[in-house]
Design goal:
transmembrane, transmembrane helix, 0% strand, membrane, mainly alpha
Length: 542
């Protein structure tokens, strides 16, 4: 493996005082284990009230139709993704690899239904929780790769990395039906994690003597993969560029000449070289096909209104604004028992953090500035992508502050990085006593824990409001009937009644005949019932 060596001697931080001498023994390894544990438990605690939220939009059908199909015939994933490219290009998007991942997540969800007998709504949320944990870990990896002055993960963790799980947890709020915490969470949490990991890889290459053939080839292939994944994945390119420059200039103190001639610049250049030959012709083709406004509105790009929507998207990750979107239903009890229970559990994690704090590497102000730079870059890129969408622009104009959208996953990660940068910058050890530093950091962490606890309670409110709706109740019943398939005549009658109730939820003009929504419902639930029980969902269906 190519050695990672700084091209120039890092410039000392003028504001940093004497740094603690770290023991040569691996006493920091339990600290890393504690950080990974918090990265898994904090998002799980905050999102746990959503475990039974009913699927909505396409998830009502995809979990059954795609999940059952690709769980038992996974080899069809690639071929179907390629065959569907012309169809989706006509709708205004090009996401063959993203669709493969989405369908694979549906298959994993249906696998949990088949293996453990879980209702589809619960299995869907468990997959979303797992990808939220992956996003949290990816954020930690990016932070460590950006602020490290040596080889990342070869020594004790930064205090930044230890604090980040608490900051990220408060952002996993069900801020409306379009939030990634509610809709397509698995796909967009995974996409945001991929964006952050690519940026982390770019930051890690900074300071190498040479890039190496394997990393160069990997960069080109990664660029092409990102171009064929989805639009949010495009943000990995500018974020990787920013990460490489920020680490080189702010943390390692390299000159501009050393920065642009280094391995980091070569890696990001090859990343762009793999991306542009795929992305540019595809976007040109989409622009031509969608010039008349006939494409899928969720993929519309409207540059004229983006500037006006930017303030809305730049603040969409703030938990207090998201809380009002989650608690708008008639069951708002944000200050109820759910908050106290979440706070108690989270405080147990703070105790471990306090024990590990002396063994964390304390960042100086240059590292805090670097973290702020990468957090702000991620936030601006995510907000910019959201602000380009015409639907989002209309919602922003209508005053829907804190509303979640596809950009929420990456915006939340960027906002958390920025928050921790401010916290560690304010309480930097260089201009405070050791005791003042520890107390200040603990105070900041307790504030983040309180925010995460309120977010947990807000998610409880969202779930309670959604469960009171007839459509949610209907799809909960459908999920239960699919997993606990009753082969008797009474079971068939119950399922046919649910089918009739689904028809009743359609607009009056589309309730007669065999409308597309009814056909899609039958196809989805029949596919699932056929795989699990060998019978149709309802024998009265065509």
């Amino acid at each position: 493996m190519t050695a990672e060596t700084s091209i120039a001697t890092p410039r000392p931080d003028a504001g940093a005082g004497p740094r603690p001498t770290l023991a040569a023994s691996p006493s920091w390894r339990p600290v890393w284990r504690g950080i990974v544990l918090r990265a898994a438990l904090v998002p799980l605690i905050v999102m746990s009230p959503l475990v039974a939220v009913a699927p909505s939009a396409d998830h009502r059908f995809n979990v059954y139709a795609n999940g059952a199909r690709y769980l038992f015939r996974p080899w069809e994933l690639f071929g179907e993704a390629i065959r569907s490219v012309p169809q989706y290009l006509n709708l205004g998007n090009f996401r063959p690899l993203g669709r493969m991942v989405e369908w694979a997540l549906d298959a994993v969800t249906f696998g949990l239904v088949d293996l453990f007998g879980l209702p589809a709504n619960v299995a869907l949320r468990l997959v979303s929780f797992a990808t939220a944990i992956l996003l949290t870990l990816a954020t930690l990896v990016l932070a460590e790769c950006v602020v490290s002055r040596g080889r990342p993960f070869a020594g004790p963790p930064s205090l930044i990395t230890a604090v980040l799980p608490f900051a990220l947890g408060g952002g996993f709020v069900a801020a409306g039906r379009t939030s990634t915490t509610v809709l397509f969470g698995g796909l967009y949490f995974l996409t945001a994690a991929m964006v952050l990991l690519v940026a982390a890889l770019a930051a890690r290459t900074v300071g190498r003597i040479r890039l190496g053939t394997r990393l160069g080839v990997l960069a080109v292939l990664l660029g092409a993969v990102l171009a064929a994944f989805n639009e949010m994945a495009y943000l990995a390119l500018p974020l990787a560029t920013a990460a490489a420059v920020i680490r080189a200039r702010t943390v390692l103190g390299l000159t501009w000449r050393e920065t642009f001639r280094g391995a980091g610049a070569r890696f990001t250049g090859l990343l762009w070289a793999g991306f542009l030959p795929v992305a540019v012709p595809v976007r040109a083709l989409i622009a031509d096909k969608c010039a008349d406004g006939s494409c899928y509105s969720g993929s519309d790009v409207a540059p004229a209104g983006a500037l006006g929507a930017m303030p809305n998207r730049l603040t969409s990750w703030l938990p207090p604004l998201m809380w009002q979107r989650a608690t708008e239903g008639p069951y708002g009890h944000t200050l109820g028992p759910a908050l106290l229970l979440a706070l108690l559990v989270l405080l147990l994690l703070v105790r471990r953090f306090w024990v590990d704090l002396p063994r964390c590497d304390t960042p100086d102000r240059r590292q805090a500035w670097a973290l702020a730079g990468i957090g702000l870059s991620a936030l601006i890129l995510a907000a910019g992508m959201g602000a380009l969408n015409e639907q989002v622009q209309r919602l922003a104009t209508a005053g829907w502050w804190g509303l979640g959208w596809r950009d929420s996953a990456l915006a939340g990660a960027g906002g958390a990085l920025l928050t921790v940068a401010v916290l560690t910058g304010v309480f930097a050890r260089g201009h405070r006593s050791a005791r003042g530093h520890r107390i200040g950091v603990l105070t900041g962490v307790l504030m983040l824990v309180l925010i995460a606890a309120v977010s947990t309670s807000a998610n409880r409110d969202f779930r309670a409001a959604g469960a009171s709706e007839k459509a949610a109740y209907l799809h909960d019943r459908v999920a239960q009937e699919v997993v606990d398939f009753d082969r008797s005549a009474a079971g068939d009658a119950r399922r046919c009644t649910l089918r009739d109730q689904f028809r009743a939820t359609l607009p009056p003009a589309r309730r007669s005949g065999y409308p597309p929504e009814m056909r899609r419902f039958d196809q989805a639930v029949d596919t699932a019932a056929g795989k699990l029980a060998g019978r149709p969902f309802c024998t009265e269906a065509p």
